[in-house]
Specification:
The structure holds 2 protein chains of 2 kinds.
Chain A (H helix, E strand, L loop, with lengths): L4 E3 L2 E4 L5 E6 L6 E7 L6 E7 L2 E4 L8 E4 L6 E5 L8 E8 L6 E2 L3 E5 L1
Parallel strand pairs in A: 2-11
Antiparallel strand pairs in A: 1-3, 3-8, 4-5, 4-9, 5-6, 7-8, 9-10, 9-11
Chain B lengths: L3 E2 L4 E5 L4 E7 L6 E7 L6 E7 L4 E4 L2 E6 L4 E6 L8 E8 L7 E2 L3 E6 L1
Parallel strand pairs in B: 2-11
Antiparallel strand pairs in B: 1-3, 3-8, 4-5, 4-9, 6-7, 7-8, 9-10, 9-11
The chains are: A mainly beta, B mainly beta.
Chain lengths: 112, 112
């Protein structure tokens, strides 16, 4: 596709459930980012990949959060044992390399 | 401690007039700055960027000004149109495109 694609758009999880969020970046984009956006706030950085290498994961809030990009294209953000404070919009973005990043529409996660 | 600040949560401007959105940052290592626009239920859309070697960048109705000594940047929209009504995020990077840090956003309303 022409843009960054994220799935699912909406996810409701019961507390304690594991979830997996998928991101298809723009073809050929080297860099891939995951952000978390709480209501009324700006996106907060979670992690950054350059191709398949996870170069920065300093923003992951706990060891329940895990991201991978095994072949340097599609990425998955996994959250284990979800908690209510994990409820947010999770945004994925990609860029060619050290340029502006293009965002997907996000996945809205609600933990009940 | 917010590294990127947008002190005006909201701004209202008459159609045809100039909109000025402001952003301040605290980290002197930031060298690349961007503005994004966000509509409800969509991901942020890239608008314009500026590197620290410049003090102005223009693209159509959008101009970004950077004052490094004051650690301040602004986005000017001239003339403002009702379709510009959205939340605007300022973002900064210290590694030329890696790990963007976002401000909390300013909601712009352009009144017809």
């Amino acid at each position: 596709g022409a843009g960054v694609s994220q799935s699912p758009r909406y996810k409701v999880a019961k507390r304690g459930q594991d979830v997996a969020l998928r991101c298809d970046p723009i073809s050929g984009h080297v860099s891939l980012f995951w952000y978390q956006q709480a209501l009324g706030q700006g996106p907060e950085f979670l992690t950054y990949f350059q191709n398949e290498a996870q170069l920065d994961k300093s923003g992951l809030p706990s060891d329940r959060f895990f991201a991978e990009r095994p072949e340097g294209s599609v990425s998955t953000l996994k959250i284990q044992r979800t908690q209510q404070e994990d409820s947010a919009v999770y945004l994925c973005a990609s860029s060619l390399f050290n340029t502006e990043a293009f965002f997907g529409q996000g996945t809205r996660l609600t933990v009940v | 401690d917010q590294q990127v600040k947008q002190n005006s949560p909201s701004l209202s401007v008459q159609e045809g007039r100039i909109s000025i959105l402001n952003c301040d940052y605290t980290n002197s290592m930031f060298d690349y700055f961007l503005w994004y626009k966000k509509y409800p239920a969509e991901g942020p859309t890239f608008l314009i960027s500026i590197s620290s070697i410049k003090d102005k960048n223009e693209d159509g109705r959008f101009t970004v000004f950077l004052n490094k000594s004051a650690k301040h940047l602004s986005l000017h929209i001239v003339p403002s149109q009702p379709g510009d009504s959205a939340v605007y995020f300022c973002a900064a990077s210290g590694n030329y495109g890696q790990n963007f840090v976002f401000g909390p956003g300013t909601r712009l309303s352009v009144l017809p």
